[in-house]
């Protein structure tokens, strides 16, 4: 056991060094994003953005849509043209009426068409919005996103600097309940720990991607070239699937730090956290049970075994033997703090890592079981298999 803990400690210390380096590679939205020196793609003739289309798919978002739209309308644009479109996707809670009352004649509220066979709801809504949009660049926002006043100016700058392709990022995650605090920040944790950020932009391999559907900025021509949401109409994890489609089309994808410009509260209670992650985890790893088992084994070994060993040695009167697992545990906490700092989370959230990993593992098993049952997954009143 001591040898295993020594190996884990070395692995975690190396991972800490990688995480610190990797977090520093995230470019800020609107700053540090540029066209690569050797990058050539068809959407580079004119980098000036004439119009930006802000596109918001909304299904039963009565609690969110007003604040989202108010934050969008309050953004500075320095006189540049912005159109705002909301698609009411068969809401049963008055989402469309709320949006129309806020927007008035300043924007368009569309009524979504009936969901065709083979499509998932959000992809269908986004496809309709893109079809109606008139902007050079399309900014897809989730209804629970809140923009800061300079967010759209930063989006304009990023679009003009990159010239084409996609720019995406993880909004700062606002949490309230304990399961939110334990699980939601682990999105950024997995990216900072395991995905070399420079390869998102620097590699043409579609396996090196990360995206968040709450904030996707994409050039109109890139969207058409990769097939848009129609090409991923049946994908549960639509944001990652769209990013891969962009890469396969030969267009650049940039993962940026947008936490200074956008925030969101994805879930509002434990049930929503459980169902949301249960829907996405297994699909997100390609529905591979072998890969799921490998990931769970690695996470539990790295982040929970050292803590369990410290408790065991202390309870059995062997405090000297607890030193090595304590070092490993502290390294894991330091890694979590590095990712939390990148996501602008409170300092003390790093102490929640072991409990967070345990909760995530339980949800992952439930996600696997859901894929094997006829019931599948339920989200926003729709059932997915």
Number of domains: 2
Within the CATH hierarchy, at the fold level, what is the topology of the largest domain?
Answer: Spore Coat Polysaccharide Biosynthesis Protein SpsA, Chain A
**Order of helices and strands, N to C?**
HEHEHEHEEHEEHHHEHHEEHHHHHEE
Number of helices: 15
Largest sheet: number of strands, sense, barrel closure: 7 strands, mixed
Question: What would CATH call the homologous superfamily of the largest domain?
Answer: Spore Coat Polysaccharide Biosynthesis Protein SpsA, Chain A
How are the strands of the biggest sheet laid out side by side?
3-2-1-4-8-6-9
Task: Estimate the mean pLDDT confidence.
Answer: 92
Structural class label: alpha/beta
What is the name of the CATH architecture of the largest domain? Alpha-Beta Complex
Helix content: 40-55%
Question: What's the CATH class label of the largest domain?
Answer: Alpha Beta
| Beta-strand content bin | 5-15%
The radius of gyration computed from the alpha-carbon positions, rounded to a whole number of angstroms, is 22 Å
Global geometry: globular
| Low-pLDDT residue intervals, each spanning 5 or more residues | 40-46
Distance between the termini: 41 Å
Number of strands: 12
Protein name: Glycosyltransferase
InterPro entries: Glyco_trans_2-like, Nucleotide-diphossugar_trans
Keywords: Membrane, Transmembrane, Transmembrane helix
